[in-house]
Amino acid sequence: YQRRVHGDDLKYTVKMSKLLLEDPHDLIHKAVGWMLREVGKRDTKVLESFLDEFAAKMPRTALRYSTEKLPERKRAHYMKCKSKTNDDSSPCGIDKISKKRKTDK
Fold it and tell me: Which end of the chain has a smaller Cβ tally under 10 Å, C or N?
């Protein structure tokens, strides 16, 4: 499996992560976060695409591990998507950061 995470075939890792998102065991959550963090080291766009779609549904442990290497602003954005106070049921796209910035001015 390590070849898949560190190799060129990131699709397998993303597919495996999707399958394991709802697993009840905390150690699996850590493993999914680790796999996604490694994906992000290879291709940030693949990780962000995954997080845009699943951040709000991911276990907090998996989300924390997967966003460790992202810039603080992006990490905070994805953690906010996980927040229970987030009433927006649409996917948690990173483009929302840009929209908020434009409206804040």
Answer: C
Helix or strand holding residue 33 (H, E): helix 26-42
- Residue 16 contacts residue 35 (beta carbons within 8 Å): yes
Q: Do 36 and 17 form a contact (C-beta atoms < 8 A)?
A: yes
| Percent of the chain scoring above 70 in pLDDT | 72
Half-sphere exposure of 34 (CA within 13 A, CB side): 10
DSSP state of 68: T
CA distance linking residue 105 with residue 98, whole number of Å: 11
Could you give the C-alpha distances from 61 to 10, 36, 67, 104, in angstroms and in order? 21, 12, 10, 31
Which tens digit of pLDDT belongs to each residue from 44-88?
999 999 999 999 999 999 999 999 999 999 999 999 988 754 454
Query: Tokens 């996917």 correspond to what residue?
Result: 91
d(CA 8, CA 3): 8
